[in-house]
Amino acid sequence: MKNKQGVNCEYCVNYSYDDDYECYTCEMNLDEDEMYRFVTGTNHDCPYFRMGDEYRVVRKQM
User: Fold this and answer.
1) I need a labelling partner for 6 at 20 to 30 A (CA). Which of 12, 14, 22, 44 fits?
2) How far is CA 49 from CA 1, 46, 58, 60, in A?
3) What is the pLDDT of residue 20?
4) What are the pLDDT tens digits along the chain (62 aa)?
5) How many CB atoms sit inside 10 A of residue 50's CB?
6) Distance CA 25, CA 39 (A)
7) Phi, psi torsion values for 51, nearest 5 degrees
């Protein structure tokens, strides 16, 4: 059995708050299958996942 490691969108740099929809959304242009997995929470191997680093900008300022 393949061990699936879950992807948590909250840590992805592509996951941001949308003021128009008043919720968090994925900024990537997802196709129909990817959008289904995103909405149902079954996107275990998201090809667009990039770990966000909110302190990256602060480190550059030092």
Assistant:
1) 22
2) 23, 6, 22, 23
3) 94
4) 333 455 688 888 899 999 999 999 889 999 999 889 888 887 778 888 888 776 655 555 65
5) 11
6) 10
7) -60, 125
Domain ranges of the chain: 9-61
Quote the strand ranges of 1-62, DSSP E. Answer: 15-18, 23-26
Query: Quick one: CA dihedral 50, 46, 38, 26, positive or negative?
Result: positive
Question: Which two three-digit tokens encode residue 24?
Answer: 């968090």
pTM: 0.62
Q: Alpha-carbon distance 10 to 39, whole Å?
A: 14
What the block records as the tokens of 14 is 């592509």
